């Protein structure tokens, strides 16, 4: 009984070392910023380009719209992430100071790496630009309007699946569920933007 008990106790430990060797929560901050930034860049810029493509056939108009969306979105992501992480940093620093005044041991908190607002802002901006480049490149070298729209949708679809898979792999979440969630959300954004812009454009407003 004792030998079996010792063997049984050792099995979970080995499994934990293999399956749970990585603490996914520790990389939640940068993973969230990177995945959200890339997805936002991909979906928002692609949707803008699809909206313009619904009423204009000029490739230059689509590219300029996409580029403007890339710059504006990257700045917005960087500023938003900087403000958010700065607020989190202020809260954590205040908590450490309160614990010190109260004489509570805060060794674990002090050893933990505090969030870096500038790093988070830069990661969000770069990730957004990385995602936004996909529809821009897909539309840049195609003259035919309908083919251009189809290529943009195809490129964005592939990128959405890849981003969903990367996020699931790094975060330790179900791959199929993650990919479907990202893919359906991206499709809806493009369809709604294209449809509403087409409707408004055809009404003469």
From TrEMBL:
Superkingdom in the source lineage: Eukaryota
Q: Where does the sequence pass through the membrane? A: 61-79, 120-142, 149-170, 182-201
Q: Does the keyword Transport apply?
A: yes
Q: Where in the cell is it found?
A: Vacuole membrane
Q: Which UniProt keywords apply?
A: Ion transport, Iron, Iron transport, Membrane, Transmembrane, Transmembrane helix, Transport, Vacuole
Q: InterPro entries, from UniProt? A: Ccc1_fam
The primary site where this protein sits is: membrane
What is its membrane topology? Multi-pass membrane protein
Q: Which reaction does it catalyse?
A: Fe(2+)(in) = Fe(2+)(out)
Q: Which GO terms describe its molecular function?
A: iron ion sequestering activity; iron ion transmembrane transporter activity; manganese ion transmembrane transporter activity
An example of a Gene Ontology cellular component annotation for this protein is:
vacuolar membrane
Pfam families associated with the record = VIT1 (PF01988)
Please name the GO terms of the biological process aspect recorded for this protein, alphabetically: intracellular manganese ion homeostasis
Q: Which family does it belong to?
A: Belongs to the CCC1 family.
Known function: Vacuolar Fe(2+) uptake transporter.
Q: What is this protein called?
A: Vacuolar iron transporter
